[in-house]
Predict the structure.
Amino acid sequence: MQFFGGSEISPSPPLPTASGNNGHMMYVFNRNGICLLYREWNRPLHTLNAQQDHKLMFGLLFSLKSLTAKMDPTSVDKGNLGVPQLPGQGCSFHSFRTNTYKLSFMESPSGIKIILVTHPRTGDLRESLKYIYNLYVEYVVKNPLYTPGTPIRCELFDSTLDQYFRSHLIHMVELAKLMVAHHPSFPVTILITTATKPDNSTATDNQSRLIHHSCHHLPPPPSPDSTL
Amino acid sequence: MAAIYSLYIINKSGGLIFYKDYGSAGRMDTNDSLRLASLWHSMHAISQQLSPVHGCSGIELLEADTFDLHCFQSLTGTKFFVVSEPGTQHMDGLLKQIYELYTDYVLKNPFYEMEMPIRCELFDINLAQAVLKDRVALLGR
């Protein structure tokens, strides 16, 4: 695991592989299973109350980790099933997919777990998770007023996180423009679901250009036949 | 090089009814495989509870650092899952094929008791062929 690629946040966040702003939820847990942050963008189905939901999510990740550590077909000595393992020890997992959602998971050496729940056809989000972890280090851990182990209430972290997710949307608008330029026959519809701030709910051309300029650079356009 | 490392079949209540290893490192004893199977059964159920939208039918693919786990659940609740190398494609097809073999050679066997461990010679022979064919197809790709 490489998380220590310099303390500076990379100037351009990793490109979203997602085909849209299709995030459902995000969780951050510490190593004791306390939910430090919970964000929800689009979640029509609530089966449990919030506290029970966080507990169940942490339990699922914990058990899946012990399952993958035991199932690892490449290591000879796997230890016993259910024995707690330190972060980074044993075979872990980075995502799982069901027919309705995809869960991407990252654990830092200190046991911080970051979980993103997205649309099932989302691509690999490991880079995005690392980027969010870097944001956490910069704006939460380095905040002198933050007490470790308490829910995160840092304005800078919140706003940067919002900006990151918004930039996903902007990238998508740019991609859509590109697609229309290459294949004028393709109708492109962008559905914007519940946004965190009211000003996110519209992404006009003007606005997209504005935020586009605040980004450092746009990466080279993908080839038209690349999959979304 | 193995395309798939192992195959598990669990009945609708989470009991392991079939386990076959195709060359994973380290030994897994019977108790461990039983425990893993029932653990997977519960994880599969919990993942449905956590879905943000309606109509979730459980984990289909788990991507770990050193392997992928592909799971297929039949309409009756029997789960088939294979542990394969990371990034292996076309595992859904293999799982469906194994399900077909199961219906043909296990369920149609008059001496087979439902939900009990599978001991059917014809199933074993045909399964070995299917896995071999899959492996050859992988080398050819």
